[in-house]
UniProtKB/TrEMBL annotation:
Ranges annotated as spanning the membrane: 7-28, 432-462
Name listed for the protein in its UniProt record: Lysosome membrane protein 2-like
Disordered: annotated segments: 469-504
GO molecular function, one term: scavenger receptor activity
Length: 504
């Protein structure tokens, strides 16, 4: 084979390898697209899908921790001093949750369900016995009654009942009573003439073994981005608590399911009945939980920002005169008018004026931030902490002299609802991610082998050429003498050496 034909052959081999690499890259992208499409079809809320059973009955254990604030200087506070609070907790409960009355609607494009929750106390994870530990805090029923008493007649009637029942602005009750309910003397008196008024009050009253009403979710069959998205709550597609259409909108999921193939640049929307509104979260950082990669999403400051800081929040002002500062949300419209204010624990992300007004507040990101760790490929929750604080707006009320020195957002308690993926669920997710990785990257492995083979071929080709050049140098023709060099016949002259005469 001539040198020219060898070069042509080598160029052909290289071009063939490059073609194989190009085809491999194309096939790799095709495989990846096919795998993503497969995921979109598998992660849907229909019978037989990979996620339906775990969506109905989540396997990882969920824990609910309650932390109370015990006030230690009530007389001084009522006279205008800064309140001194001690945090007491956690009182931990195992939370069992499942979807009840699940039914498919709209040709499997939607599914309706009730989110039922129940709680079981866990002494080994708690600081004490909730039946025995007492907390001194705001008398919430009394403040609710006073805040509704408008006009001379109602104020007079309220003061009469306060005196008759011996009700005080602050009460001391057990943790059990504050959580699960106790019969309040003021509410009992009112219920005699207004039977619709509950005699029992508790922060978690009627929330053990109950649900928040019917949810209708998108299954994700038509569009994977709609997986788990809430369509209606209690038969309504929007709320009626707030003053603008945007504030009343129901967006995103209920926090239990998120679409696959998450992007770091997207906002995660969550509708939460506890806050009577939709909130959003944004990407914060990459994390890893039990060997599973995840994106951490967390609510930014703008979620609970004041209307001056975030004009979109103006709709959450109960009235123009009741717009609170950054970090607070007055939820009285969905709490029967009670002056309840929601925030993050210890007023995390709130204006400094709120934690500064309370002795004992120490907002810390590590302990008070709400976050979701989601696997970006599957959308599965691998770790989460939902943290919220219940406060009461204490202010001076006309006709109630004991309130004359009060103007404080007073913390009552905060909760921490947490979950970490269990080992069995983590193993399933890891297996699925391994399959996705192998299938998506198999063509790339072939491409890599092709590149390696191309380099090996080029190295062998260069080595062979070098050896051939060396061999030609060793066997090349060289003239015998000067005469040969000058021979016009170009080396056809052969110089002969006379043979010696043996007789000589």
């Amino acid at each position: 084979m001539t040198r020219r034909s060898c070069a042509v052959y080598a160029v052909g081999i290289i071009c063939a390898h490059l073609l194989v690499i190009g085809i491999g890259l194309f096939v790799a992208q095709t495989f990846r697209t096919l795998m993503h499409n497969r995921l979109k079809k598998e992660i849907v809320l229909v019978e037989g899908s990979r996620v339906f059973a775990s969506w109905k009955t989540p396997p990882p254990p969920v824990y609910m921790e309650f932390f109370f604030f015990n006030v230690t200087n009530v007389p001084e506070f009522l006279e205008g001093a800064k309140p001194v609070l001690n945090q007491v907790g956690p009182y931990t409960y195992r939370e069992y949750r499942y979807k009840d009355n699940v039914s498919m609607v709209e040709n499997d494009t939607m599914v309706s369900a009730y989110n039922t929750k129940s709680f079981v106390f866990m002494r080994e994870r708690s600081v004490g016995d909730p039946a025995e530990d007492n907390i001194t805090t705001v008398n919430i029923p009394l403040w609710a009654v006073m805040s509704k008493a408008k006009g001379f007649m109602k104020v007079t009637m309220a003061n009469f009942m306060i005196s008759a029942t011996g009700s005080q602005l602050f009460i001391t009750r057990s943790v059990d009573e504050l959580l699960w309910g106790y019969e309040d003397p003021m509410l009992s008196r009112i219920s005699q003439s207004s039977p619709e008024v509950e005699k029992i009050f508790g922060l978690m009253y009627k929330k053990n073994g109950t649900n928040d009403g019917e949810f209708v979710y998108h299954t994700g069959v038509q569009n994977y981005m709609d997986y788990g998205r809430v369509e209606t709550w209690k038969g309504q597609s929007e709320l009626t608590f707030w003053s603008t259409e945007q504030s009343n909108s129901i967006n995103g999921s209920d926090g239990s399911a998120f679409h696959p193939l998450l992007d770091k640049n997207e906002r995660i929307y969550i509708f939460t009945p506890d806050l009577c509104r939709t909130i959003y979260m944004e990407f914060e950082k990459d994390v890893e939980v039990n060997g599973i990669p995840a994106y951490r999403f967390t609510p930014p400051r703008s979620v609970l920002a004041s209307k001056e800081e975030n004009p979109a929040n103006e709709g959450f002002c109960v009235t123009p005169q009741e717009c609170l500062g950054t970090g607070l949300l007055k939820v009285s419209p969905c709490r029967k008018g009670a002056p309840v204010v929601a925030s993050f624990p210890h007023f995390y992300l709130a204006d400094d004026q709120y934690p500064d007004a309370i002795e004992g507040m120490s907002p810390q990101r590590e302990h008070h931030q709400t976050f979701l760790d989601l696997n970006p490929t599957t959308g599965v929750i691998v770790r989460a902490n939902k943290r919220a604080q219940i406060n009461i707006l204490l202010s001076r009320m006309s006709g109630f002299p004991k309130t004359r020195n009060l103007n404080t957002v007073f913390p009552v308690m905060f909760l921490n609802e947490s979950v970490v993926i269990d080992d069995a669920s983590a193993a399933k997710v890891q297996k699925l991610l391994l399959i996705v990785t192998l299938v998506s990257n198999f063509p790339l492995i072939i491409v890599g082998l092709g590149v390696i083979m191309l380099f090996v071929f080029i190295i062998l080709l260069l080595r062979a050429r070098r050896q051939k050049t060396s061999a030609e140098d060793d066997t090349s023709y060289s003239p015998v003498n000067d005469k040969e060099k000058d021979d016009p016949q170009n080396g056809t002259y052969i110089g002969l050496t006379p043979k010696p005469d043996p007789q000589a």
